[in-house]
Amino acid sequence: MVERALEAAVEAARAAGEIALKYYRTGFDVTMKPDLSPVTQADREAERVIVEILERAFPSYGVLGEEFGARGPRERRWIIDPIDGTRNFVRRIPVWATLIGLEEQGEIALGVIYNPVTGQLYTARRGGGAWLNGERIRVSDVADLAAAHLLHADLKLLRQAGHWDAFVRLIDATGRQRGFGDYLGYALLAEGKAEIYVEVDLKPWDLAPCKIVVEEAGGRFTDFAGRSTIYTGTAVATNGRLHDSVLALLRP
Mean pLDDT across the chain, nearest whole number? Predict the structure, then answer.
């Protein structure tokens, strides 16, 4: 059943990516949501086609999507971000992806991350490992914070959320720091190209497939308090070896 669900999620992600890529290459209108984040017709059309494909394959499952909200049962539901990185999409920066996760009884069972610009397709299912375009990926074995690469998303959000001092401690403790936001931070970590990624101001659809891709690649994913959840608005992903040290530095 999980394998069939993963196949359906890949199909849906590719279909959404095709729609989004058409707009990305030709043009679209941008409007602002109440939270001042941008949305385009590409976001909405992509989510519609994802839901259509997934509901056809698994009509008893619920849905939680960024653009059209929740419906159906919560016990087993799809969590969808049709375009993660809409601000990048709007500015024609090729760092955006379709994100689909399947949540079962509060745990993420599988995840798909698809960037149609680059053709990168990350997949993972519980106990089945993490894969990039059919090749197994794994986190790094770096065990020394001083040698670690620290990735981050929006610095202003970190500051506004009250985590600036903690982030500075991470900067001082690590060997290299780079800003690779949105899904890309988790992808690079899962591929073993970085060791730590921190992010705030998050919704569950930003994180569902990223969590399982990191975990199945051998890493660890929690919120800043160390809880294994996608629902508290913060996220820290590591190669696992450094996680407790990172959490200690993030504590107020």
Answer: 96
